């Protein structure tokens, strides 16, 4: 079964469970190599490892590759038949994040969670619901409203051997901890001469919600992308949400996991067996030959909506969810560009200094000779997100704009 088109409605509001009330060493550089993952959608099926080791043991035969089938776009019949017979269980995206977190806390006693209301309240979006009762108040720690303090505490905990996960009640609030994230998380491995590793995961809801106001609609990807030493990924489906959560917790690098507030109620069938996604690998969502569309997070689903119209009009777009916002998977992206020779980037980040700007520069540096047309980029407007619903919608890229851009690009 594919993604539930009912659970994700482009015109709907936020129906989630929120209640009212430096990579300096060669070894770490190798960890960023995309060669370690194969296939358009890579994951590793693993057996439980020793709780104190934090290592993964997976025989070569367990490397799997598959493509997500979604109701938002027409797919080839053989792909649909594979999905129809696939075993597993259905979860909403926030439940998939919780399942991945819970599995890692069971596997490794060093894993702990801290943030505002993450304990017995279960988190603002219920990602940590039930974990305090299961693992205790010391491993699921409620903190005061002081982002700089508890983020700094997480960095210190990581330096002493723990593997903390920091939840920002809203990613915009983590601007209060920007010093700890940049000067401490990103740089301590380097400035300590490799004496310390900082295996911290920083996660929480972000993106333009549904009339949440400017301060709760922040897109911080571009803020953190420029910080040396940080790794950053964006989940877009329950499948990759769980797999990326597990991979981020196991990483020796500080990882920022970007979650979109309007995707928490997205439903998908995921495997029953344990799996871990690759932190450095993009996902080929739909193969095509006319144009490469690069996107991530919520815009993946806007692109898939636009693709229905494009396919009916005779276009054959190739859609790639870049997932890894730092570093980019230039291997997957480059292979697509060499085939299509045209690129459209669709993002919710701001146009000035956004992810799209960095991605466009990387493409021009590496694949200029393969381009037959200028790179187009659709981004959000460079304005604080309005509270009024109609104005808010006007600041974000919509499917009709994507269709229009592809027509212009492909002629």
TrEMBL record:
Keyword Thylakoid: no
Name by which UniProt lists this protein: pyruvate dehydrogenase (acetyl-transferring)
Signal peptide (residue range): none
UniProtKB keywords: Oxidoreductase, Pyruvate, Thiamine pyrophosphate
SUPFAM superfamilies: Thiamin diphosphate-binding fold (THDP-binding), TK C-terminal domain-like
Catalysis: reaction(s): N(6)-[(R)-lipoyl]-L-lysyl-[protein] + pyruvate + H(+) = N(6)-[(R)-S(8)-acetyldihydrolipoyl]-L-lysyl-[protein] + CO2
Cofactor(s) this protein cannot do without: thiamine diphosphate
Organism of this sequence: Ceratopteris richardii
Keyword Disulfide bond assigned: no
Example GO molecular function: pyruvate dehydrogenase (acetyl-transferring) activity
Function of the protein: The pyruvate dehydrogenase complex catalyzes the overall conversion of pyruvate to acetyl-CoA and CO(2). It contains multiple copies of three enzymatic components: pyruvate dehydrogenase (E1), dihydrolipoamide acetyltransferase (E2) and lipoamide dehydrogenase (E3).
Coiled-coil intervals, chain numbering: none
Domain of life: Eukaryota
Enzyme Commission code: 1.2.4.1
Sequence ranges assigned to domain Transketolase-like pyrimidine-binding in this UniProt record: 91-266
């Amino acid at each position: 079964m594919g993604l539930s088109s009912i659970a994700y409605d482009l015109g709907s509001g936020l129906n989630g469970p929120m209640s009212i009330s430096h990579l300096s060493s060669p070894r770490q550089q190798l960890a960023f190599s995309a060669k370690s993952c194969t296939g358009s959608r890579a994951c590793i099926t693993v057996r439980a490892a020793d709780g104190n080791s934090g290592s993964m043991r997976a025989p070569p035969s367990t490397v799997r590759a598959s493509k997500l089938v979604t109701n938002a776009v027409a797919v080839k019949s053989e792909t649909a038949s594979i999905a129809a017979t696939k075993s597993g269980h259905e979860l909403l995206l926030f439940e998939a994040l919780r399942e991945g977190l819970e599995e890692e806390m069971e596997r490794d006693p060093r894993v702990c969670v801290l943030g505002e209301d993450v304990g017995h309240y279960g988190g603002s979006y219920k990602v940590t619901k039930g974990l305090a009762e299961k693992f205790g108040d010391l491993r699921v720690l409620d903190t005061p409203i002081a982002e700089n303090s508890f983020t700094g505490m997480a960095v210190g905990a990581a330096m002493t051997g723990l593997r903390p996960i920091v939840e920002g009640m809203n990613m915009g609030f983590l601007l209060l901890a920007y010093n700890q994230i940049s000067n401490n998380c990103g740089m301590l491995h380097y400035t300590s001469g490799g004496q310390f590793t900082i295996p911290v995961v920083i996660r929480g809801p972000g993106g333009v919600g549904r009339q949440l106001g400017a301060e709760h609609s922040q897109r911080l990807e571009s803020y953190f992308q420029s910080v040396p030493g940080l790794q950053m990924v964006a989940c877009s489906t329950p499948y990759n949400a769980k797999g990326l959560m597990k991979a981020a917790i196991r990483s020796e690098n500080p990882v920022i996991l970007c979650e979109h507030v309007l995707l928490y109620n997205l439903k998908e069938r995921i495997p029953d067996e344990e799996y871990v996604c690759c932190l450095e690998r993009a996902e080929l969502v739909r193969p095509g030959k006319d144009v490469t569309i690069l996107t991530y997070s919520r815009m993946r689903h806007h692109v898939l909506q636009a693709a229905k119209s494009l396919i009916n009009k005779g276009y054959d777009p190739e859609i790639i969810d870049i997932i890894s916002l730092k570093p980019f998977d230039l291997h997957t992206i480059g292979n697509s560009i060499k085939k299509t020779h045209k690129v459209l980037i669709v993002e919710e980040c701001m146009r000035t200094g956004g992810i799209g700007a960095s991605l466009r520069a990387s493409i021009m540096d590496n694949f200029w000779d393969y381009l037959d047309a200028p790179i187009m980029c659709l981004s959000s407007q460079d304005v604080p997100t309005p509270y009024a619903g109609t104005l808010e919608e006007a600041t974000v890229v919509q499917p009709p704009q994507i269709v229009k851009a592809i027509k212009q690009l492909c002629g």
